[in-house]
Amino acid sequence: MINIYLLVIELIVCLISMLLLYKYCQINGLYAYTIVAFIISNIMTLKIIPIIDFDINLGIIPLTTIFIASNIIIQKQGNEEIKKLSLILVASSCISFGIIYLTSLLKSSNINLFINRSFDNIFIGSERLYFANNVTLLYSILLNSKLYSYLKSVKNQIWVSNIFSSIIIQFLVSILFTIAAYTFLKEPIEMLQLAVLRYMISLIAAIIGTINIYIGSKIK
Amino acid sequence: MNELIMICILLIGIASIYIFNKILDTFGLKIVFIIFSLISYILSFKYLALSTFHINASMLTCCISYTSLCLLLEKNIIKDTKQVIKLNLLLNIITSILLYLMAYYTQSINDTVAINMSNVILNNIKLLIAYPIATYISYEVFIYIYIKVKKLYDYIFISMVSTYMASGLIALILTYFISYYNIITLPNIIKILLSTYMVELIIVVAFAIAITLIKSKKVSK
Asked: Where along chain A do its domains lie?
């Protein structure tokens, strides 16, 4: 049960920080938020937690809030800005993974050896999960921008665009992540359970995030 | 091997500055600063052995952050640069909160990585508070001194190196003394502090020389 409470706290922290950054630093704050959320999500994905008797990877909440941030960007600046956002996300993912992984390979000092070894063990051997999280986000962020813009052009209502695009995109994200991360490692039924649980959590987070898009669209 | 990997990391940093500056100009430099500052934060949990030195793993990426900050100041956008530093403080605080929360999730029995995450974060709990504050103060000092020095000598090499000598030392002293007091012995803290400072200073000098050369070539063209 503590994990569910922590997920709720994590969602609140992410949504409030996104709004704070947007309020004080405008659109640059949203770009900065997506970078933090992406790098932290990549690290969190490596941890597995039990939720309602099923094991899932962490990092779903920061990942979902990136979509909310991108929807605020589309709402304010239009679809073209998403290309810039994608470029920034690709670069931050490549740079952060490259440097953190290379640092894990470096010989540790004897001072604080226990922590140094723990640090190395986090990243070495976790490449597949890292890769799965990256590919999933980068592919779906582009699709999300197209879908959100389309829905916005059809019916210019924030909740319609966000909820309907989330229903489709979060499903895609869950399926893609599960396939990329666990094919040949887990049984198909286990993969399906994981995908369904991820989908449920990310969809709830995305729907709650609609409030952020409303508030964000009112911030000048 | 260690040296080769370090050179690779430095090359990644230099390439990032160059590419982002080319594609997105000032905005690109801000992004590089934020990315490398965040990576520095994550790497600050690890210590490396380089020959007889014991250095903090974040020192390479810290140098890249300082360099991008320096290039931002060279473009005379002081107000924007100050805003980026405040933004960076907020981002570091958010990172601290998220890392802290992550350590408290109950891990699955099938998970082998989570225990390492908890070890790294919960044993460095003071670093989660000290690092954002220390870096913020050091960057503020960096901007303050840089502007003063630039008024006296408008020469990037002198501004960059002299500014780093003060602000880098402040950052390291604040970070290590707050984070590791009573955790690591005092001689070891001083050993890490001095080694990290020395190596960082050498890298900053190398970067300053490179930037000066590139600038002088551009002027001669």
From this structure: 2-218
Q: Which stretches does DSSP call E strand in chain B?
A: 47-50, 53-56
Contacts of B77 in chain A (CB under 8 A): none
Q: For residue A1, give how far its alpha carbon lies from the nearest alpha carbon of chain B (Å).
A: 9
Question: What is the per-residue pLDDT across A41-100, written as a single tens digit (0 to 9) for each?
Answer: 989 988 888 988 888 888 899 999 999 999 999 888 888 888 888 889 888 988 998 898
In angstroms, how far is CA B134 from the centroid of its own chain? 11
Q: From the list A6, A98, A105, which residue is nearest B104 (CB)?
A: A6
Phi, psi torsion values for A210, nearest 5 degrees: -55, -35
Residues 6+ apart with CB under 8 A from A15: A65, A68, A208, A209, A211, A212
**Cα–Cα–Cα angle for B171, B175, B181, rounded to 5 degrees:** 145
> Over the stretch B155-190, which tens digit does the pLDDT of each residue have?
878 888 888 888 888 888 888 888 777 777 888 888
The secondary structure of residue A155, as a DSSP letter, is S
- By the CB < 8 Å criterion, does A86 face chain B? no
Provide the residue ranges of all domains of chain B, joining segments of one domain with +: 2-220
* A102 in contact with B, Cβ within 8 Å: yes
Q: Can you tell me the distance from the alpha carbon of B144 to that of A107, in angstroms, rounded to the nearest whole number? A: 36
3-state helix, strand, coil in chain A (%, to 5): 80, 5, 15
CA distance to partner chain B, nearest, from residue A217 (Å)? 21
> What pairs with residue A44 in β-bridges?
none
How high is the ipTM of this complex? Answer: 0.92
